[in-house]
Fold this protein.
Amino acid sequence: MDDQLALPVGTTLDRFIMRKQEEFPFASGELSQLLRDIALATKIVNREINRAGLLGVTGTFGQQNVQGEEQQKLDVIANIRFIRALRNGGEVCTIISEEEEGIIQTGNTKGKYVVAMDPLDGSSNIDVNVAIGTIFSIYRRLSDNGEDGTLEDCLQDGTKQVAAGYIIYGSSTMLVYTTGCGVNGFTYEPSLGEFFLSHPNIKTPQDGKIYSCNEGNVNSFPDGIKAYLNYCKEQHYSARYIGSLVADFHRNLLKGGVYLYPPTAKSPNGKLRLVYECNALAMIIEQAGGKATDGSERILDKTPTELHQRCPLVIGSPDMVDKVEEFLAAEFVAV
Ligand code: AHG
Ligand code: MN
Ligand code: MN
């Protein structure tokens, strides 16, 4: 069905969203509107990122977020812009953001959806003009309509996502998302202020030759990961690590590869956050034919217990993720 209704490259995001909605005759259009709200906030954030050096919004904000990380000015700006767009849109009752400790009530108590987001991913790259991103997950609320959303609404398994996506602010700006029927990528044309379908029905290669991790931490990686990295070198794979999850993920999605953020001495559960980083990318990679695990368990099957909980991540081409798991399993047999 998807193939017959495939829309041509060059279709605008608005039209694409509308046509996809028509495939579900009883859809109310609220999810479509929510996706449009995210696209609007993206355009605003994109403008601020592009002009950051001129607007004086590079550098630190002077406060730490809930994880004790130094907030950058653009982290704060992106957070405000996305929350404002979601609040104004009206479809979302509750938001979870990397930049806010608790759940955020929009006041739209009739909103059917919950959004979890990393408003700006790769903050350490903002000031040096390297690709950064935004990550979002959309869930249907579990609580009764007409009330504020609850913590339970926000701590759903990744399998419950109704949509997930990311924006990469790179050499061009792209929005990539899935509603569970494949993955599509849209490139932003700034002079027209429009996203156009540029990467229809993205599938990740079954296998790849790129591995991405912060190898500076190798001494405190699990032995299985150390052994896997040696294997990568024996195979003459390429090491590619930008330090912005979205950008590293996007490259590997298109070219084939594996991204790893294993446990380290500093971050015993890895550094990345399950609810607003790992789950969204896990849904996308699976929809594109890839895999995402924490080294043994499927990311989407994990039940979050805390908003900001961290989780190790191995994500990418399915054969490469399997190989990492083989090395990790061998480590435990050897012990
Ligand atoms: P954020 O900027 O949202 O805090 O995320 C940063 C993350 C992720 O984007 C990236 O892959 C990772 O941190 C890099 O961590 P290291 O500097 O430890 O490699
Ligand atoms: Mn991040
Ligand atoms: Mn962030």
